[in-house]
UniProtKB/TrEMBL annotation:
Signal peptide limits: 1-24
Species of the source: Trichuris trichiura (Whipworm)
Database matches in Pfam families: Lipocalin_10
Keywords: Signal
Name recorded for this polypeptide: Lipocalin domain-containing protein
Domain Lipocalin positions: 51-194
Length: 252
């Protein structure tokens, strides 16, 4: 049974109990109104939404993830801090194919740096199959919305799957995003079936503070290509990265 089917079955099962209230310590948490709300939340999973075709050139370059789904099935991405991503063309993935090379710190803004890569193959306007290193099968990466174009680039990008279980929101500049676009994005997400009774895809902040230090594309490439482990102290890693970066620049 798929994740979506399981969630819907659970909602119907709870609703079948009727208007009885489930007694919990302090107050009655589940009543018929709440259960109907949950059912409405589950129903959003099976309602189609408009996919937004993107201009690849306007999506290239540097991004920061500012929101993710509250329930994240990628466990190692559950506690991301200071996320950065670089979107690149990938001809191997076919016409309109893309790669997203990412880095973030785990558990705290000073935690270990993790790298991650997604390869996207376009299957329809605004729809991609996403191939990652930790899954042996592709997943959906559908464009729910994109922000305005400033200086030839989208200001933000919202991606999910057909059932709206996952959620990824990329912004060019986190500070400007929260100042200019956050309110309208939250309103669009609420109308589109994110958050509220749909608790699993509620937008949850990814830390992007002024104290974040972001690796560039070159450093991410080096980290992915060379045997750097989390157990190594930063005092060992940083000189190693500088030397590798210098060699890479010299050979370019």
């Amino acid at each position: 049974m798929s994740m979506g089917s399981t969630l819907l079955f659970t909602a119907f099962s709870l609703l079948a109990v009727g208007p009885r209230q489930i007694i919990c310590i302090g107050e009655d948490l589940l009543n018929s109104k709440t259960l109907l709300g949950l059912l409405g939340g589950f129903s959003h999973m099976f309602q189609k939404f408009e996919r937004h075709e993107i201009d690849v050139d306007k999506a290239l370059g540097k991004w920061h993830q500012v929101y993710k789904a509250a329930v994240n099935f990628d466990q190692f991405q559950s506690n991301m801090y200071c996320h950065v991503a670089y979107v690149q063309r990938n001809k191997i993935m076919g016409a309109g194919g893309l790669s997203i090379v990412e880095a973030f710190r785990v558990n705290s803004r000073e935690g270990a740096v993790k790298t991650y890569k997604r390869d996207l193959s376009r299957t329809a306007p605004g729809e991609y199959w996403m191939f990652t290193e930790d899954y042996f099968y592709p997943r959906q990466f559908f464009i729910f919305d994109v922000g305005p174009v400033i200086n030839g680039s989208y200001e933000y990008l919202i991606a999910t799957d057909a059932n709206r279980i996952s959620l990824t929101i990329f912004a060019r500049d986190p500070v400007m995003f929260y100042k200019l676009y956050d309110q309208q994005v939250q309103e669009k997400l609420a109308k589109g079936g994110f958050g509220g009774y749909s608790f699993w895809n509620r937008p949850e902040n990814v830390y992007q503070g002024f104290d974040c230090v972001y690796p560039d594309e070159k450093e991410i490439f080096i980290r992915r290509a060379l045997p750097i482990t989390d157990a190594q102290p930063q005092s060992q890693i940083l000189p190693f990265l500088r030397q590798a970066s210098h060699l890479l620049s010299s050979s370019a």
